[in-house]
Amino acid sequence: MRVLYSWWGIRWLLVLAVWVVAGCGGGGNSTETRISGTAVNAQGASPAVNLPYTFVQSANNMQVQVDAGPAGAFTLAPNANILFASVTVCEPGSSTHCQTIDHVQVDTGSVGLRVLASQLSQLHLQSPPLAGDPLWECYPFVVGGLWGANVVADVGLGQQTASAVPIQLIQDNPNAPLQASADCANATNNQILGSASALGANGILGIGSVTLDCGSMCQSGVYTGSFIQYYQCPASATNSSACSAAAVPVNMQTYNPVAAISDPAYNNGVVLAMPAVTSSVGALTASGELIFGVDSQANNQTASAPKVYMGTNPASSGYLNISTVYQGQTYTNSYLDSGTNTLVFPDSGLALCAGSGWYCPSAAVATSATLADGDAPAQHQVLVNFDVGNADALFATVNTAFSNLAAPAPAATPTFAWGMPFFYGRRVSMSIWDLMSAAGPWYAWTSL
After folding, report:
1. N or C: less crowded end of the chain, CB within 10 Å?
2. How many other C-beta atoms are found inside a 10 Å radius of the C-beta of residue 437?
3. Are residues 233 and 104 part of one domain?
4. Per-position DSSP letters for 349-379, written without gaps between them
5. 240 and 333, same domain (yes or no)
6. Could you tell me if residue 12 is inside a domain?
């Protein structure tokens, strides 16, 4: 069994912070959790699940689906709990020079569209000019990350278009002259994810709760004590050693495509609606709906759903996080993230799978936790019930959608990450931070 999982937490004005735990198989990964079920002795598939209503295309929505992933990714076994969408990328201002990319992972825990460069090879996309040199970006996680050029493109999301958005082209040509810099390789533990098989997707659609993927550190170009995230690389460069650290204006940094939608009714957040997965061994696939905008149209209202606010103090562990109280312990660095394909939390009372870091109780365990604000854990408390299943039993199927998949948090960084299992059977609203508002970004959800 190849077992990998990772998760991201957004750190606006600081840098993206990521925690990664590797089970059997080792290796690295990107924002999204990377798990594959075993192909040995695989049992039959459960039925696919769909929303309790018929999807209808409107001005501000698009279909999304959990399935086995793109061709060439994890060919020995399917993905698990990876949410995909199709995204259209066009040359700026063109409606004809476009390519539609399938199986781009929908990630509410990161910011920016990042697509394998080979998927967009038919387009002529240019880097935002910075002193005449193209921009390149290193986007690391603890044991893996991305390297690639930054370009400007129009991004199509359903019927909406985000115009002239900085995106990243993930370098997936091992023979190209500009491979990852030594600093980037070091920051990613020499695990540059440069293929669909390594990434488990054709790209990442980061639609998190802020607008930029970096902020002031990259704007100043002072990367002291950190890795270099943005580089200026001369067009004539034949090696990344010719690249230098770049100070990048905020309008050139990789940007949240939803926030870049021009209509203010659609660019202040998202609503993700996913069907319930009721079978204890999961579902073959799960089809849902991603809606753009919150509290602005008839189809994106939060109604009476209580809002749970993320923290806004950069010096606090609750910054851009919420809190979770589980078994008497409060985790202020907690978050909801469709880009994590499991629930991640510490519980010494749950049995682990033999030889890996997944939870494998002998029988399903029903438990609960309380979610609340990041800066004020006693405010806006909401009880959440959830189940923990046996990961070995789940991976023994050919299913891809599991509502009870869970794994322990690393002892060095205890946290409670509410990954993709949280979203099944719920309609989850997530705002994009309006810095002019006194309140921080928030989550709200109701059952479907």
Report:
1. C
2. 10
3. yes
4. TSPBPTTSSSB--SS-EEEEEEEE-SS-TTS
5. no
6. yes
Q: Give the pTM.
A: 0.91
DSSP label at residue 255: B
CB 399 within 8 A of CB 45: yes
Task: Give every CB contact of residue 59 below 8 A, 6+ residues apart in sequence.
Answer: 158, 159, 160, 266
Say which residue the tokens 């695989």 belong to. Answer: 42
CA distance 7 to 404: 17
Q: Are 342 and 404 in contact (CB under 8 A)?
A: no
Amino acid 128 reads P
Is the same domain home to 360 and 219?
no
Domain range for 90 = 4-252
What is the rounded end-to-end Cα distance, in angstroms, of the chain?
33
3-state secondary structure of 385: strand
Question: Minimal CA–CA distance to 255: which of 210, 321, 290?
Answer: 210
User: Using the 8-state DSSP alphabet, how is residue 306 labeled?
Assistant: P
Which of 252, 269, 291 is the last residue before a domain boundary?
252
Nearest to 193 by CA among 240, 155, 146: 146
Whether 77 is covered by a domain: the verdict is yes
Distance CA(399)–CA(281), nearest Å, equals 8
Shared domain check, 243 and 336:
no
In the chain, the amino acid numbered 437 is S
Sheet of strand 343-344: strand arrangement: 382-388, 365-372, 322-326, 329-336, 417-418, 343-344, 406-407
In a domain, 277, yes or no: no
Residue 410 placed within a domain: yes
Residue-wise pLDDT for 129-186, tens only, equals 777 789 999 988 655 789 999 999 999 999 999 999 999 999 999 999 999 999 999 9
Amino acid sitting at position 240: S
Short-list 37, 3, 5, CA closest to 344: 5
